[in-house]
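Subject: Predicted fold for 23S rRNA (Guanosine-2'-O-)-methyltransferase RlmB, 302 residues

User T.R. writes:
Posting the sequence so we have a shared reference for the thread.
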Amino acid sequence: MSESEPLVLRSPANPTVRRLVRLRDNRTRRREKRLLVDGWRETLQAIDAGLDLVGLFLPESGIPQPRHDSPPQKRTGANPGQAHETDPRISIVIEAAKSSQTLRVVSDAVMAKIAYGESFRGVVSEFVQPDHSLDQLKLPPNALVLVLDSLEKPGNIGAVFRCADASGVDAVILCGGGSDIYNPNAIRSSLGTIFQIPSAVGCEKDVARFLIEQNIRLVAARVESSQELWETDFSGSIAVIVGSEANGLGPRWQHAEGVDIAGVRIPMFGKVDSLNVSVSAAVVLFEAKRQRCKASIDQRRH
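User M.O. replies:
I've generated the structure tokens; pasting them so everyone works from the same file.
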């Protein structure tokens, strides 16, 4: 088979196609330890993060050109196996697939079955799911950690990862009901940053024990706290805990392993009494980063 005439996967009943469709289910992803990624930017982020690429699926009709200001537009008549001459992300991803011999071409009908949602993003890729146990999480000195407690909406999880990446968080830990970080909506709303930040998943008790054993101070974002954000010390190794917009943290994360957990509140000056969790996380994290950067600058001056 020549590179100009790739084998095209056409049957929706093909075992590979049926397996890919099943991978859209969280339980199947966990059982098979695989995940699917939609989009060139997100696929490149996963490759750059060192995830093991096991399949790159391109449409037979050609490679759609990603655009930043509008949904992807389809280019018809192009050889799906040829590197793209305009967007460097496409060339890098395709070359990575060729070098690992994971490039596959599928009919448009098959692509419609394996892609997520109504808005096709140009490519579907399959990766081996990384280990997200607490044991594998290695934290640097003076780590800034974000803990997400019971965030069940994948879009919120992805948006928080995006904020965490922008604010320079060292790790994100998920606990409670929201632990499906490879939901397609989570990946999409994170813009692929979900692959770039070290992360782990565990139950509340195990996460608390892990952080305290690492000598990381815990601070919980609570609307009922008397301690305002601007009065809170975010120096040293610290973990910021946030809950869902609907339920907050409730009675959780007040004590852990015999240690009282300090609360922090974002002051509200308008009529609303809450913010979306990604906005709340961003406000707290950037204040933490501001304090830490200022302390570093002051230390260098002296």
